[in-house]
Amino acid sequence: MTRIAILDDYQRVALGMADWSAVAARAGITVFDRPIGADEAAEILAPFDIVCHVRERMPFPKALIDRLPNLKLICITGPAHRTLDLDAASARGIPVSNTGGAPEAAHATPELTLGLMLALVRHIAHEDRRMRDGLWQGTMGSVLYGRTLGIVGLGRVGGLVAKLAGAFGMKLLAWSQNLTDERAVEAGATHVAKDDLFAASDIVTIHLVLSERTRGLVGAREIGLMKPRAYLVNTSRGPVVDEAALIAALTAKTIAGAALDVYDIEPLPAGHALRRLDNVVLTPHLGYVSEEGYRAYYAGTVANILAFLDGKPARVINPEALRR
Which candidate in 55, 147, 285, 315 is catalytic? Predict the structure, then answer.
């Protein structure tokens, strides 16, 4: 019988987000609810014919693909998996099928971004902890209205953040390497130079795709330009921000704080320095995690598996694999 592995289902919800009965009648399904380390992945996944990914939670390099002799199909949620070696899969003749998403799920990361901003300026997490300790008011927050938000990356997610922040009455600045004045105006923002954005903003929020061009783009110099009372929010990808430089600034309190949903290493190690700082709000990469998105992802995954089992692979992003 065909064997299917569903990876990194941290909440153990995958089988409840779609109707898997037609798949279960034709294949055995195993759900992994914990991260599988690189050293054990080849051994654990060796028996499986189909592997289902949740976004990019688990890297899938050539070194791993080449050690999975039974692998015949890779299913990914969303349009792409940037840490999966597509060329290696194609060379083995392994098709990679992607899924669409629910339209409303596009708002998940922008809404979380605004939530993190509110958590920072109103000290929500801090006051929640105090309440559980039997204490009462201990801080005084501020409003978002009238504050300046610097948006680094004004694409789909950044544009939606701009719309939400505009509704709060925030002043919007924007910068990215390819941003035009016209696009900034369309989003209700002012296009400024990168240094000016970091120097003028009360809150800086990051919305860039991770690439060699953006890795470490926000470093010690950029953080050093920020106001002492400014905050940094990152719901994009951890390595866009120089983690060591950010920790140094937070420790020295040269900026007021940060809210982070993404990290260099995920899951974030238990003893990591960020977990010990009192001026950071931390969430475990919740940006894209929503019921609406998961239902669309897993319904698409089921459809892709059934199509493959019927000999008609669907939504294949590496069609050259089918010619091998």
Answer: 285
